[in-house]
Write a structure and sequence with these properties.
This protein has about 220 residues and is an alpha+beta fold. It has a single domain (about 20-130, about 175-210), classed as Roll (Pnp Oxidase, Chain A). Helices cover about 25% and strands about 30% of the residues.
Length: about 220
């Protein structure tokens, strides 16, 4: 994996004047990193929360909110249980959609792409950075399966706390996914509902076709 994009220009211009095209380059990730930073500095509520939608095994779309953990040059990374509903859906159909929405900034980023698992060493490293309770929870929760009672879940946590009284290893069914974008749309709210919509669409040669949509 390429290095985490963590350096963007400290530009606080909110695009209140001029065209959004005047502030984009020839690829979308620098602008995405800047908007994420703006959402943190505003601050907004849960700036790294994104709704990820998959096609479930029942044939219907399903959405849930997850947390973006890294923005790489290849795409967007989040972590979950591979045996969850979304994990099983991704295994069958890796095409997904992700959406960020920051009402305080009147901004959305819409991402359409495909999903791959991140390398195991990357999942190991992130898992070890998590609090002990979250590590135990990753083992205790049979995510998306039916649960007879809260007591059953809490009992499993206690058993695991005894079993792993020191280090807690990463469960083999838990790890990261990366969404590799094929299309990214930046939406900026404007007066009179004449919003800006700028789209980056990936081409076969790896370049991005950039165009504006009607609001």
């Amino acid at each position: 994996m390429d290095a985490f994009i963590n350096q963007v220009k400290n530009d606080h211009h909110q695009f209140d004047q001029g065209k959004l095209e005047d502030h984009v380059g020839d690829e979308p990730f620098a602008l995405m990193a800047k908007w994420l930073r703006d959402a943190v500095e505003k601050p907004t509520n849960e700036p790294n929360a994104m709704a990820v939608s998959t096609i479930g095994l029942d044939g219907f779309p399903h959405s849930r909110v997850v947390y973006l953990k890294e923005l790489l040059e290849e795409g967007l990374v989040f972590y979950t249980n591979y045996h969850s509903d979304k994990g099983r859906a991704i295994e069958q159909n890796p095409n997904v959609h992700a959406l960020f929405f920051w009402s305080e900034l009147e901004r959305q980023i819409s991402v359409t792409g495909t999903v791959l698992k991140v390398p195991e060493e990357m999942s190991d490293e992130y898992f070890q950075s998590r609090p002990r309770g979250s590590k135990l929870g990753a083992w205790a929760s049979y995510q998306s399966e039916r649960l007879s009672s809260r007591a059953e879940l809490e009992e499993r946590v206690q058993q695991l706390a005894t079993q792993y009284h020191e280090d807690v290893p990463r469960p083999p069914h838990w790890g990261g996914y990366i969404i590799e974008p094929l299309r990214i749309e930046f939406w900026q709210g404007r007066p009179s509902r004449l919003h800006d919509r700028i789209v980056f669409e990936k081409q076969q040669n790896g370049s991005w076709d950039i165009y504006r949509k009607n609001p």
